[in-house]
Description:
The complex is a heterodimer of chains A (113) and B (114). The mean pLDDT of chain A is 94. Chain A has strands spanning 4-5, 10-14, 19-25, 30-38, 44-51, 56-59, 62-67, 72-77, 86-94, 101-103, 107-112. By secondary structure, chain A is mostly beta strands. In chain B, a hairpin with a 2-residue loop joins β5 and β6 (54-57). The N and C termini of chain B lie far apart (30 Å). The A-B interface holds A 4, 31-32, 34, 36, 41-46, 49, 89, 91, 93, 98-101, 103-106 and B 1, 4, 31, 33, 40-45, 48, 50, 56, 58-59, 90, 92, 97-99, 101-108.
Amino acid sequence: KQEVTQIPAALSVPEGENLVLNCSFTDSAIYNLQWFRQDPGKGLTSLLLIQSSQREQTSGRLNASLDKSSGRSTLYIAASQPGDSATYLCAVLSAGGNEKLTFGTGTRLTIIP
Amino acid sequence: DAGITQSPRHKVTETGTPVTLRCHQTENHRYMYWYRQDPGHGLRLIHYSYGVKDTDKGEVSDGYSVSRSKTEDFLLTLESATSSQTSVYFCAISESSQRNTEAFFGQGTRLTVV
C-alpha cells in the first residue's frame, strides 16, 4: 500500500529565503507525482506535475525534483514571499492501480514578513 | 478554479438522512473524482468517473454512491449520513487519465452530520 509522508508538518521562514519542502513515498512504482497548494478554506491548486520519467519540473520560482528510486521529491521555492504562505501537498499516482492519487498530509508553510 | 462548481458549499444534516453533493464542470473533461479531506488523513478518493455512466470505487467508498448522467455533472450521495462522514468533500476533474494530465480541484463542500 502506497504511503506518502511530508515532513515537517509546519515550517516558518523569513521572507526572501529559499526553502525546500520534502515528500517521500514508499512504493517507487508510480506514474507521476504532483505538488499542490491549499489556502485555508479553499480547494487545491495544482503547482507542478512530474512524470516518472522526469527528474524535475520548473514553474517560475518553483522547482520540483523527483528521485523515484529513493522515493523522494522536493519542492524548492526561491525568494519566498508572504503570498507563498499556504499548505503544500504532494500526491503520487501509483502504477498498476486505478486513478487513486495518494496524498501526503501536507506541510503548512508560513512566510514571515 | 478550472470551471468547477461544487454545491452546496456548506451543509449541516442529521444522522440517517440522505445527502447529495453536486459537482458541475464546464471544461468538458472526461474524468471526475470525489475526495474527502480529514485531519491526519490527507485527501482520500471516494469514487471516480471515467465517462458518462462509467464509475469506479476509490479507497473509502462504503456508505457513498455516485452517478454521472451527463459529462458536466457528477453527484455524490450519502445514502444514510453518519457522524463519521463529517468532512470536507472535494470534487476534481482531469482531461484524461491522471497518468498523463494533472487534476484540478473545486473549492470544497463542508458537510457536518449531527
